[in-house]
From TrEMBL:
This is Signal transducer and activator of transcription 4. The gene is STAT4. InterPro entries: p53-like_TF_DNA-bd_sf, SH2, SH2_dom_sf, STAT, STAT_linker. One of its GO terms (molecular function) is DNA-binding transcription factor activity. GO terms for biological process: signal transduction. It comes from Iconisemion striatum. Residues 220-232 have a biased composition (Polar residues).
């Protein structure tokens, strides 16, 4: 019956969530937990998310665009699954990617944590993008949240995600670059969580000074409120060249502002 394939029957959110978890388990090695499925339900169903028996149409799931976005729910989810399979599998299978969490919930989770605590989530505004957000506390006690422009397959093809987390630097008002990422949410030291996932290839005898791809962001002051598009943040350099960046290298710096991008 061709009509069945052209217009599949509705399914309850309970049924659909089980299928989605199975999809991730089959193709990415780990299914979705209750919190992740709850967030997905809110994104797809909005005010009906609390109703497990709510009937979801095929059109709403796979054809209609998410409100305010140029893509459907399934297109967004499928792009994330593809990103995990090709670039994030080790980190995903360690359960280090919270993944499906809204920006609002992200702030709730991070606001009372130690400075430098960060979590990993998939972008809500980009197809196949992952970002990390960390919390900071100013001297007057103000809580600040910073999020890097999402990493997509093109950028992750150049540098493994665990290495990005290890080597990430922020330049702020000319201060020597430093890595603001200290603890994976809720309180796991970064190197304890990701240490065995770092790319630690042995050095080879080579006539040139070895270089390392270092992801860098420029922290803009609060006077600049409009986020700018991200440029490639991985210039080739050696770790010892940080204090000589302006003299020896020419590159586009990844732009970051607060409040942060999606």
């Amino acid at each position: 019956n061709l009509a069945f394939f052209g217009n599949p029957p509705r399914a309850s959110w309970t049924q659909l969530s089980e299928v989605l978890s199975w999809q991730f388990s089959t193709f990415a090695g780990r299914g979705l937990n209750k919190d992740q499925l709850s967030m997905l339900g809110e994104k797809l169903l909005g005010q009906h998310a609390s109703c497990s028996d709510y009937q979801v149409s095929w059109s709403k799931f796979a054809k209609e665009n998410i409100p305010g976005k140029p893509f459907s729910f399934w297109m967004w989810l499928d792009s994330i699954l593809e990103l995990i399979k090709k670039h994030l599998l080790p980190v995903w299978n360690e359960n280090y990617i919270m993944g499906f969490v809204s920006k609002e919930m992200e702030r709730v989770l991070l606001k009372d944590r130690e400075p430098g605590t960060f979590l990993l989530r998939f972008s809500e505004s980009h197809l196949g993008g992952i970002t990390f957000t960390w919390v900071e506390h100013s001297e007057n006690g103000e809580v600040k949240f910073n999020s890097v422009e999402p990493y997509t397959k093109n950028r992750l093809s150049a540098l493994p995600f665990a290495d990005i987390i290890r080597d990430y630097k922020v330049i702020s008002d000319g201060v020597v670059p430093e890595n603001p990422l200290k603890f994976l949410y809720p309180d796991i030291p970064k190197d304890e969580a990701f240490g065995r996932l770092y790319n630690s290839q042995p050095s080879k005898v080579h006539p040139y000074i070895p270089s390392t791809l270092i992801p860098i962001s420029e922290m803009r002051s609060n006077s600049s409120r409009t986020p700018r598009s991200c440029q490639s943040p991985e210039p080739p350099m050696t770790p010892g060249e940080f204090d000589m960046l302006s003299e020896h290298l020419c590159f586009d710096i990844d732009t970051m502002s607060s409040p942060y991008s999606e």
